[in-house]
Each structure stands twice: as structure tokens, then as C-alpha cells.
Design goal:
The structure is a single chain. The strands form five sheets. Strands 4-3-5-6-1-7-14-13-8-9-11 form an eleven-stranded mixed beta sheet, sandwiched between helices. The chain has a three-stranded antiparallel beta sheet with strand order 15-16-17, sandwiched between helices. The radius of gyration is 28 Å and the shape is globular. Helix 15 (448-462) packs antiparallel against helix 17 (495-507) and helix 20 runs antiparallel to helix 24 (673-683). It starts with 14 loop residues before the first strand and ends in an 8-residue tail after the last helix. The protein has 24 helices and 20 strands. Helices cover 34% and strands 15% of the residues. Strand 13 and strand 14 (409-417) form a beta hairpin. It is α/β, with parallel strands linked by helices and 691 residues long.
Amino acid sequence: MTELTDTTGTSGEPVAVVGMACRFPGADDLQGFWRLLRRGGDAIGPGTGLREGRRPGGYLRDVELFDAELFGISPHEAALMDPQQRLLLELCWHALEDARIPPTAGGATGVFVGSCSDDYALMSRMSSVVDAYSMTGTARTFLANRLSYFFGFTGPSAVVDTGQSSSLAALDQALGSLRRGECTTAVVAGVQLNLTATGDRLIEELGAMSPTGRCHTFDRSADGIVRGEGAGVLVLKPLEAALAAGDRVYCTVLAAAVNNDGGGASLTTPTQTAQQSVLAQAYRRAAVDPAEVAYVELHGTGTKAGDPVEARALGGVLGRGRPADRPLLVGSVKTNIGHLEGAAGIAGLIKTAASLFHRELPPTLNHRRPNPDIDLDGLRLRVSTRRRAWRPEEGPLVCGVSSFGLGGTNAHAVLGEAPRREDAVPGPGEPGATADEPVPVLLSGHTDAALRAQAARLADRLDGRDDVDLRDLGLASATTRAALPVRAAVVASGRTALVARLRELADGTHGDGTHGDGTRDDGTTVLVGRPGAEPQDRPAPGDGPGTAAAAAAAAFVLGKPVDWLAVYGPGARPADLPPYAFQRRPYWLDTTTAAGGPAAEDTAPQWSGDPLDLVLDLTVEILGRAPGADLDLDATFTDLGLDSRMAVALRTSVARATGRVLPTTLLFDHPTPAALIEALRSDDTKGHEFR
């Protein structure tokens, strides 16, 4: 990691958090996480499924599931990919949607991922399954570089490992990159999956694991950490740019600071002096009086050694000078979901950002009797054990988030409440279509099933709600979502009719009861199709009020450009939409086979079949297409979609199936399926090696 040096003065313009997505124990998305926190939910439980028999912890469900097809990844490659990569791909997609940025937009975005775990890489190496996808599947650098590659991000791309403080250290690097102008937007993430019991044993041997399976932050019962797993993704922009774009701002990041203990009682023993220093540095950079801080999300691991040190450091910097009746509120999300290690900092930050956005502080669990080694009253600290709303007179709010790494790297971030919406400059222009004029609402998916799931999700979101402006909804559907191959559009002038048509799309009955052109007696129109082909239903000709909307809907379905601001009017503002409905399937490391055949080279079977079937079947499999899919035999492998790693996998698979030693330049020498088939046919009875 690049050396981080202190800077005097403030850090400059605040940075806005404009998008968030997460999967944490007991919560599959951001809304679920907030519900868990508000009700004081406890997501700690015994290991199940792939982690059956493991000690209590915060576990994610279904870590083997992934929508490989959406991301253009073959089933074989997906199985060799660290599930942490897969998790980040899906969460980055959702975070961009939450930020109202189409996931296909690309651009000068930086990626900064905090991670300190490689369980899947360990499993892969122990299995001896090694092929062209092993490096890109398990090397930690691809936690960031995979995101940059798929989403077309051209800013800096880095993985940060400072142990348990990794994701807050990644945030610090992102802030610097934004302020230096290296990127205009930043994606900050943290990820942790505890896939093997070996990690549990390491912490047990260190003496840090809780034998009771519960985190008791700052409590007399504190007896160690409870492991957790999950991932979170943030989308950041400079505040001025976010406000100018009319973005929703969850909170601002005023500053962050990172340092190291630089020595101490032992390599793993925290140091109060260094923690005080990083706190003071962060608030100096933020130009915030420490006495004005309303809340700090603690590192708060619930260990006998760490908690007292953290408490004294906080009291020394943020508690000093506070009146006894206004102590600093503190808490820890680790009591809800466990210690997420490499993702611990971002879990605490997402909790705090959501608290600022909703102006409500969720309760911290498992705190009943203060740790006798922590003088909460004297330090002017109070563990927040009940849900409380921040009163208007308490704002604007400033909060802190701490994360400390084993080995001494300390990080702290200072968050501020977002500017009030009434303070933001409204967008120019007069309102567009009136409420009773038809407008198109668009949907798309990478498969028919995904499209139907999107329709169902949107119908569920709208059902029973009367506060939805269809212009805002339509603009969001047209400008904040990826336009995928399977498309549909509903033209409607009212919520009730829109929901009815969405339900029909979800059920596959959208063509029933129409007049053959997609229209219905209630004036709605439903169009379904793919770019480059005529839609299944065409809009009716004419000059009625819905004609322009239906024409725009048909253009979207056909993949033609549309001026959406003109369609919805300059007064429309993007509304919230449900996140994309991933179509997940299980992918996991298969220790019995490698690409194209058995793991052991000397057991590869000899081949005596038709090279036409061999090349077609293997190419389709490596591309991740359905068995039997058509291929243009005269197209180059590159045009068909094979990258360099896929080409290596195809060569290896052909070699194993035929029992031949093939040159590394095989697909360079024979760049089309037809050429490769002919080469195999011309030599398939000679029994000699290609040279």
C-alpha cells in the first residue's frame, strides 16, 4: 500500500455518498439491512449449508449463487471465480443503480476494494484444479480489476489490505483520488467471506474468538470477536457535482485518516496513542470540533484488550470538554452481524450513513453492564442501546466511524449529514406531461425470466402507492438502468393500469385481451421485443395523446435512440426503482475435473470423434451459451467472444479430448472454428503432435 502521509489543514470539498448496496448476515439488500438494524435484529447463528457444523457467526446465505450469464461469464469460469468477486460484481451493479447511474455507463470511475481474505484461493490450490481461469479467478487484485474491466471504469483500480481496517483504508484512498482529479466518481467496497474453518482456528489460536458466540461491545461480558461475512459497495462523487446533478445524497464524507501504531506491547496489541492521533487527524482535516460529534460507530470488537483502549482514545479526543449530561453516543454493528474483518469498516459506514439519512440511530445489542475497565461516565461516553430519533434541533449532524486492523493500521472517517433538500438548487424547466397523459415505463433483462422478474418487482413497489409520479418513474426507467437485450415498455397514464399491465408481463399474459397492436380498451399499450427485431406488438397509428409515448416505447424496444428528457418533460426527476433481479445459479469449485476434462493430465481420454462436434461443443461451453447454440463457423474466435483466457481454455480442452500436444498458438494459427476443424480433420488419423 502507498505510504500515507499527514497533511495539515482541511481536506477540501466534502464528498457525497450517492449510492449504496450491501449483503450482510440477515439482510440481502440495503433496505433489509436497515430493517434489521432498526428492530435490533441479531443475525448470529450456527453455520449451515456449505458452512454446516461451523461455530456461531454471521453467515451469508447462498454464497454459491451467481448470475454468470448477465456478466458474460461462462459456467466453468464462474466456478473458478472467488465468490467474493461474484458478490462484488452484483453489488456494484446495484450500487450504481441506487446512485441512478446506468451500470453500462463506464467512464472515469475509480475502484477501491478493501479485503483481507482468500479462502477460495486456498481451496482452489489445495484441490489442484488449475487452468487459464485460476489466476484471474482467485488473485486478490481482481476483486477490483474485475469491476473496472466489466463496468468499463478507467480510473485507478486497487485492492487495499490493512487487515480489519481495509475497507476504511480503501475509502481514504478513494477520497484522495477524487480530490486529486484522478477520477470523477469512486466505487468503494469491502468484502469478506469465511468459507473454511481454518480462519476460525487462526483466530482461536490467537485467543480472540468469543466462546459464547456473541459480541459484547464495551460490556462486562466481552470475551472476544464473533466472525461475520458480507460485502458493501459505496458510490462517491464530489458534493458539488452531486448536488448539481440532483443526486440523492445519503451523507457526506468530510475527511478520513489512516495511521499505524508503529510499535507497542506486541504486533497485535492496540495502542491508545496511535488511535488518539488518527482521531485528532481526521477531525482536524474535517475542520470539525470534536465536541460537535453526535455519534461514533466503534471498531467495538468486544475483546478484553481492544475495547478499553478504544474507549480511552475516544474519551481523550471526543469526550474531552463535553458536559456530563451530553455524552458521546457510541455503538457497534458487530453486535448485530459479527466482525466482518476486511468489510468491517464499510459495514459500520453503511449503518452510519443510513442513520444520518433517516436521522435515526439503531440500538447496539448485548450491552447490559459496562466493562469495569471502561469508565464510561468519566470518558463522557454512552453506549446507545435503544433506538432514538435525532431531533431537528440536534442537526446538522456529524458522526465518526472507526476501524482498526490487526497489526496496527488504524482508520477513522468523519461523516456529515447531507444538505437539506430545500437547500439544493432545483432543476430548471417547466413540468412535462400532465399526470393524465400516457407515458412509457421501460423494463429490460438479459433473459425472459429476468424481464418478468423486473416487472413483478416494479408492480410490487407500486402496489398501493398513490405518491408515484409516472413521469419520474418513466424517466428513471429510461435513464438510470442498463438497457438489456430483452425489453418491454408499458405506456399508461395511471398507476392502477400500469400495475395491471406489469402483472401481466410478470405472468406472461401481456398479449391477452389486446387489439393485436398491444393496446387495450383502457388506453394502455404493452410492447415486448429485442433490439434489431420488430416488437411483438406495434403501437396503433394516429395522432392521439399517447401516440408519441407509444412511438418512444417502440423505439426503445427496437434499440433506437430517444430523447427521453423531451418525452417526459424537463420537470421530471428520476424516482427510485427496484434493483435488478439477478437470475442466480450455483457455481462452486469442482475438485474432480478441470477445464474440458479430468484434473490429472495423464488420465485425459483419447478422442476419435468428429472435430466439428468437438469444436462446437467446447466453444459453446466456454462461451457460456446454451448447449447446441449456433455458431458462425467462419467468424473469428475473437468476434465470437473468446478472450485470451478463453482461447487458452479451448486449446487445453481440445488437447485433453484428443490426447494431442497442441501449440500455444493453435487459435492464432487457426483463427476460426472452420479453420480449426479442418486442421483437426487433416491430422486426426496421423497420430502425431501438432508442432
